[in-house]
Amino acid sequence: MIRAALSAFLVLVVASTEGKYIPKTGRRVPQLLSRGWGDQLIWAQTYEEALYWSRSNNKPLMVIFHLEDCPHSQALKKIFSEDVEIQKTVDEDFVVLNLVYETTDKHLSPDGQYVPRIIFVDPTMTVRADITGRYSNKMYAYETGDIKLLLSNMKKAKKLLKSEL
What we know:
The protein has a domain at 47-158: Glutaredoxin, CATH 3.40.30. The chain has helices spanning 2-17, 47-57, 71-82, 84-93, 147-163, and strands spanning 61-65, 95-99, 117-121. The protein contains 5 helices and 3 strands. InterPro entries: AGR/TXD, Thioredoxin-like_sf.
């Protein structure tokens, strides 16, 4: 009886880890800073810290603005955290920060304060106004159907960084 229960438990544990992104460096301890956007990723705690990491590691910064009680934010978070390619790209090529509050830096809300919104910042601390979503009235908004566009924009941010070196 105990053996059967233990076997069932092991099957559940193995099944729950399939399809999730695991960094090359091995499984990491989940961070509270991820807020569910990618528990195996390393997240900056503040905008200032993220800018420092971006500059120090010469990686673009991706800032995700969201709210815990926003259904659009929750839907995007679910798709974002389950997409293996996005998780891998973020882990290897980006500094990431997710915020549930607005910053005082007006450069991070060039077309208003709304959620979810994703802004890319290069290591020179320049907000990339040329990397936008598909909406003209909310240029940095992404929905669940925009995940391929988001991945494309992530690759664009990475490519722009390399071309400017």
